[in-house]
Amino acid sequence: MAEQENQPKDYILPKVWRWDAESGGEWAKINRPIAGATHKQTLNVGKHPLQLYSLATPNGVKVTIMLEELLALGIKEAEYDAHLIKITDGDQFGSGFVDVNPNSKIPALLDNSGEEPIRVFESGAILSYLAEKFEQFVPKDLNKKAETLSWLFWQMGSAPYLGGGFGHFYNYAPFKIEYCIDRFTMETKRQLDVLDKRLANTNYICGEDYSIADIAIWPWYGNLVLGRLYNAAEFLEAEKYTHVMRWAKMIDQRPAVQRGRMVNRTWGEPHEQLHERHDASDFENKTQDKLV
User: Fold this and answer.
1) 163 lies in which domain range?
2) For the chain, how many structural domains are there in total?
3) Could you tell me if residue 238 is inside a domain?
4) What is the pLDDT of residues 193-246, one digit of tens each?
5) pTM, to two decimals
């Protein structure tokens, strides 16, 4: 019986689609075809100007890396509180979170440094906002800036095929579907080839300078080739993408990247988990190995 349940069933296309909450596999309970809050839940607010509400998925890690990189440059105004949003518990559907991000996806940022709070949602928008606000990790030269933003938006448009496509059907779907895995594996490998050809001629994605393009792309494609995402490095023959691998390992050594990976992380080794970050000293004093 269990073997039959793991096999794909013939699908008869209905005239009108109806939501079956039990058909979505591992993530069924956090996906729904409607927007808006499901319950009242006030967001916590810390002492720093920037309030981040997130989880250490690749999209969340982009922002914590960016903030840690800004702090590493000595920009004190980039101090932040990182509040954990437990998506499996439905925190993203709380009224407070929906007020900051009506799309109910992490990460979401609230900037309280001015007279009026500014909300920013979507990871690429947050990176762009922080880069412009602090004038870091985005070139001033119009040509170079256009290149950086092009690669930033390349990531935003490409990663859904990697995460929602390849990652879902390869790792999370309740049964394996050859057509889906083949389709999205092909696209993922094409994207890796795009990056590999680009990085054959540049040190970083946009040239010799580290930028928000690297910060956006690395949590997805860097972690993928390093074997940290979907346990798929061997399946994708990641080692063949030598330039991507070189770039991924180089960025992995940055202290701010190592810190950013830890923030809002609730899985993995306890010493790599910092569920919430409210002070720089939390990396030393409040990782899970210190609290257990």
Assistant:
1) 142-253
2) 1
3) yes
4) 999 999 999 999 999 999 999 999 999 999 999 999 999 999 999 999 999 999
5) 0.94
